[in-house]
From TrEMBL:
<feature type="binding site">
    <location>
        <position position="145"/>
    </location>
    <ligand>
        <name>FMN</name>
    </ligand>
</feature>
<feature type="binding site">
    <location>
        <begin position="294"/>
        <end position="295"/>
    </location>
    <ligand>
        <name>FMN</name>
    </ligand>
</feature>
<dbReference type="InterPro" id="IPR037396">
    <property type="entry name" value="FMN_HAD"/>
</dbReference>
<dbReference type="InterPro" id="IPR013785">
    <property type="entry name" value="Aldolase_TIM"/>
</dbReference>
<dbReference type="InterPro" id="IPR012133">
    <property type="entry name" value="Alpha-hydoxy_acid_DH_FMN"/>
</dbReference>
<feature type="binding site">
    <location>
        <position position="238"/>
    </location>
    <ligand>
        <name>FMN</name>
    </ligand>
</feature>
<keyword id="KW-0288">FMN</keyword>
<dbReference type="GO" id="GO:0010181">
    <property type="term" value="F:FMN binding"/>
</dbReference>
<keyword id="KW-0560">Oxidoreductase</keyword>
<dbReference type="Pfam" id="PF01070">
    <property type="entry name" value="FMN_dh"/>
</dbReference>
<keyword id="KW-0285">Flavoprotein</keyword>
<feature type="binding site">
    <location>
        <position position="117"/>
    </location>
    <ligand>
        <name>FMN</name>
    </ligand>
</feature>
<dbReference type="GO" id="GO:0016614">
    <property type="term" value="F:oxidoreductase activity, acting on CH-OH group of donors"/>
</dbReference>
<feature type="binding site">
    <location>
        <position position="154"/>
    </location>
    <ligand>
        <name>glyoxylate</name>
    </ligand>
</feature>
<feature type="binding site">
    <location>
        <position position="216"/>
    </location>
    <ligand>
        <name>FMN</name>
    </ligand>
</feature>
<feature type="binding site">
    <location>
        <position position="243"/>
    </location>
    <ligand>
        <name>glyoxylate</name>
    </ligand>
</feature>
<dbReference type="InterPro" id="IPR008259">
    <property type="entry name" value="FMN_hydac_DH_AS"/>
</dbReference>
Length: 343
């Protein structure tokens, strides 16, 4: 289904917009490796367990119908006029958290998301203002993305000289929410973001909000352990969907080492390459508490707006329940006890 959706979205979207969403950094080695790594993971089913699947769980204090949350995706209005609002509505129908992107094309106040994503702007006053706005809007957690000190070269966007379409801005950052006329997204982003963020900055943020913090973009177990020591509540194992360091380890391959490093002192989420209910169970068996899903919802949004995104999430839950049943699992906890092999 995901492949069919992607083809339908590709046919509908302008070429430059499709390439921005579908592409990765450099030669796109890591983009391809994310999927190849998932497909190497085989599950070892249990039998005669008497289990009836119920994938409900809690992540970052949020109750949810399955261990899946919507990943932060920038500029969703490029794909459909309703943008962030459409995907947030689909997430509410599905009973899962929606993570609003700092570079989203609707404001925190319009969306009132479950979780809010932060990058590290050079202006710490701006960052603190965004935190306070998220708190007032009722967000229950912050997802701080730390794998983009600079925006990587994305060759498709360079070839296309990609700029944001008219009417699409980073709504939370108005009046600085749009690149100057003719400016590329990478130039605008690199001007806005701080390339010299350190662990001291994380300490600063931790001291200024009581909201749970998930640190997104962690691949090295040493960084995961240090994040837990710094007081984060969850780490998100992610290579930015193959959009940052081309040649970075596939996220699902990094997952077991991160889980071992943090033990049960932190929740662990997986991002990058999740496409199906089978992938969700693979991630759980390798140590994740839950996953983030991004690109499939972009394709669904492009084709069918809220209803399209809601359909993808319903199908994902149906697939997840089927895989749980076929592996003898009733709960997320059962799935985390499954053995795996490499194909």
């Amino acid at each position: 289904m995901t492949d069919e959706l992607a083809e339908a979205a590709k046919a509908r979207l302008p070429r430059a917009v499709w390439d921005f969403a579908a592409g990765g950094a450099g030669a796109e080695r890591t983009l391809a490796a994310n999927r190849a790594a998932f497909d190497r993971v085989a599950l070892v089913p249990r039998v005669l367990t008497g289990s009836v699947p119920d994938p409900a769980t809690r992540l970052l204090g949020t109750g949810m119908t399955m261990p899946v949350a919507v990943a932060p995706v920038a500029y969703l209005r490029m794909y459909h006029p309703d943008g962030d609002l459409a995907v947030a509505a689909a997430a509410r129908r599905a009973g899962i958290p929606f993570t609003a992107a700092m570079l989203g094309s609707h404001t925190i106040e319009e969306i009132r998301p479950d979780w809010f994503q932060l990058y590290w702007p050079r202006d710490r006053g701006l960052m603190l203002d965004l935190v306070r706005r998220a708190e007032r809007a009722g967000c229950s957690a912050l997802m701080v993305t730390v794998d983009m000190p600079v925006m990587a070269r994305r060759d498709r966007d360079v070839r296309n000289r990609f700029t944001l379409p008219d009417g699409v801005t980073a709504a939370n950052l108005v009046p600085d929410g749009r690149a100057r006329e003719g400016s590329t997204v990478v130039a605008h982003t690199n001007t806005l973001f701080d390339p010299a963020v350190s662990w001291a900055d994380l300490d600063w943020l931790r001291s200024r909000t009581a909201l749970p913090i998930a640190l997104k973009g962690v691949l090295d177990p040493r960084d995961a352990a240090r994040a837990v020591a710094a007081g984060v509540d969850a780490v998100v194992v992610s290579n930015h969907g193959g959009r940052q360091l081309d040649g970075a380890v596939p996220a699902v391959d990094a997952l077991p080492g991160v889980r071992e490093a943090v033990g049960e002192h932190s929740q662990v989420l997986l991002d990058s390459g999740v496409r199906s209910g089978l992938d969700v169970v693979r991630a759980l068996a390798l140590g994740a508490d839950g996953v983030l899903i991004g690109r499939p919802l972009v394709w669904a949004l492009s084709v069918g707006g809220t209803d399209g995104a809601a359909h993808v999430l319903r199908s994902l839950r149906d697939e997840l329940c089927e895989v749980l049943a076929l592996t003898g699992c009733g709960t997320v906890g059962d799935a985390r006890e499954l053995a795996t092999a490499r194909m």
